[in-house]
Specification:
This protein is mainly α. The chain contains 6 helices and no strands.
């Protein structure tokens, strides 16, 4: 049998081993906790950085779209003015100089104004969008890009429709079957289109400017 001294020695040895084991486990646990904390911190920092990059790209894209919208509105305002002129006069009272002016400024002028969506599409396809806690900003982004998609779709229809009328009109001119007195592109401006889309472009321009302001306030 072990005497008291030996029992005390054995107990002390066991306690030392337990203490050493606890310290080793504690060091491992602490190391894991620190590693996890650092990983979470780095992930959060990277996500914030990525969010800032995505939103900055969207801001730049929307600023470019504003320039395109301004050009489209300038163009459509001339279209609307010609429509107004045709609607406010009888065919017999059309002024030849006025018709000629619109021939050179709008009747046979056709251009596309494609609005960009790449930056927003990249945000949608990433995991970053779910981390955007500013719901008002998120809603504004969705609404603006819905408007942009609608404008792109409607203007594509407008472009194709006007082009079809231009081909018919130019064919009639070549065959001597149309003159200024009958008003160039009359059917297009009176029957096919009244440029009602102009108000949609102006509304989208206003919404885009407001969204850019929200993006700038987020910085």
């Amino acid at each position: 049998m072990l005497n008291n001294k030996e029992l005390h020695t054995n107990r002390a040895s066991i306690l030392r081993k337990i203490g050493k084991y606890v310290r080793e486990v504690s060091i491992v646990v602490l190391g894991v906790a620190i590693t996890l904390s650092v990983t979470v911190w780095l992930n959060n920092r990277n996500e914030k950085r990525d969010m800032a990059l995505y939103l900055n790209a969207i801001k730049i894209e929307l600023e470019e779209n504003i320039k395109i919208m301004d050009m489209a509105i300038d163009f459509l305002q001339v279209e609307a003015a010609y429509t107004t002129y045709l609607n406010s006069h009888d065919i017999q009272s059309y002024n030849e100089d006025t018709l000629e002016y619109y021939v050179h400024t709008t009747c046979y002028y056709l251009n596309k104004f494609p609005l960009k969506t790449n930056a927003f599409e990249m945000l949608k396809s990433s995991h970053i969008m779910r981390l955007l806690d500013d719901k008002e900003l998120l809603l504004s982004l969705w609404n603006v890009y819905i408007d942009i998609d609608m404008l792109n779709t409607n203007f594509e229809w407008y472009f194709n429709t006007k082009w079809g009328h231009m081909e018919k009109d130019l064919s009639l001119i070549r065959n001597g079957m149309i003159s200024f007195e009958t008003a160039p592109m009359y059917n297009f401006y009176i029957i096919a289109l009244t440029t009602s889309g102009l108000k949609d472009w102006k509304a989208a321009l206003n919404d885009t400017n407001e969204t850019i302001t929200k993006l700038e306030k987020r910085k």
